[in-house]
Write the structure tokens for this entry.
Amino acid sequence: MSDKNVSPNDKKSAPESAGQGGSAPETENAATAVLEDLESLRSRALERDKFLSMLQRTQADFENYQKRNRREREEEQRYQTAKLMNDLLPVLDNLERATAAAKQAGETGPLVQGVGLVQNQFLDLLRRYGVTRIEAQGKPFDPNLHQAVMQQPGQGQPPNTVLQVLEQGYQIQDKVLRPAKVVVSAG
């Protein structure tokens, strides 16, 4: 082979590529380069694992956010009428007072019957929206459902029993709109 056809770069790499006689420093440099590459790969793998872990946590946080948001929207829809219903309760109280006063006066005319029908219609409307009365008369006092206005001697009732309901309480679904104002038996 003539030197004219071989480039100077080919001459240098020919003995190395043929595997003939590499010196010790070149072998050490190659080993060092391999170790550096290995260390670089390890650090990149650790960085990848760190980002993967961060991605998984972020994904879990986002899924939890979506679940919490869905629950809050469902609860908001469930209780969206609560404020309106709470504002309407005094109207119902006045209808009840009107019918009670008419009965006490002994009136049974068409006006009293009409007010009674409106009261029943009002109660039906509340029921359709999930509003129900809190039954308190004769029940044990529950501070979550009742508001004690005063205490009286038991009159044959066990202590902490509701003796009288002064103002009717209401709840929507399982949430108290207005606690019942009650008189409770003393111990």
Notes: The beta strands are 131-134, 146-152, 162-167, 169-172, 175-178, 180-185.
